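> call design_seq(struct)
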């Protein structure tokens, strides 16, 4: 697995482009669509915290621990969210797709499914990953269902895994897709996008 450099991944519905500070205002507008920061079991930045969150992701990218993307809808060029490759483990050819959020107005339109197809395709077909992981809060039923719809399998639950900003403890559900499963997962995602079953 070669070191991953910032890159652009383009699909029919969405383009994932390298995160920059120039995306700040567009990301603030996107996060205000649905006020996603009010969901206590997620870690979505508040509008006034967006600058610090961009800097945090870019600092982790400089350390080789993350590749940060801004998601842009192709139809109108609107910025709709953020996602990353994170916890990159080149020696073991593994990484996690996470720190993802999307504006409420684009959820269920296929942009998230296509984003995952782009990220997974690059991870398995270009980087040669043998496993890609997804993690979410036990209480985040929407996220858990979306990850399962991708074709990922639940590996287990890390109990009392981390402490949230409000002091509560998070039980983290861990899912993964391994390289031998990837062709089937890819076919499922392509079918969902083609026939409109795209949450």
């Amino acid at each position: 697995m070669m070191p991953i450099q910032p890159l652009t991944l383009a699909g029919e519905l969405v383009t994932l482009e390298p995160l920059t500070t120039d995306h700040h205002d567009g990301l603030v507008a996107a996060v205000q669509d649905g006020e996603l920061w009010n969901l206590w079991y997620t870690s979505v930045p508040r509008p006034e915290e967006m600058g610090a969150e961009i800097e945090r992701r870019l600092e982790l990218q400089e350390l080789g621990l993350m590749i940060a993307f801004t998601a842009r809808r192709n139809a109108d060029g609107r910025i709709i969210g953020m996602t990353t490759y994170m916890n990159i483990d080149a020696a073991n050819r593994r990484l996690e797709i996470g720190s993802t959020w999307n504006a409420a107005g684009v959820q269920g339109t296929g942009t998230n499914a296509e984003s995952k197809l782009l990220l997974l395709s690059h991870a398995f077909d270009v980087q040669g990953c043998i496993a890609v992981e997804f993690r979410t809060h036990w209480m985040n039923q929407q996220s858990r269902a979306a990850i399962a719809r991708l074709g990922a399998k639940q590996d287990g639950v890390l109990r009392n895994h981390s402490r949230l900003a409000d002091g509560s403890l998070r039980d983290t559900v861990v899912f993964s897709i391994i390289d031998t499963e990837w062709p089937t997962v890819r076919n499922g995602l392509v079918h969902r996008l083609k026939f409109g079953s795209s949450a």
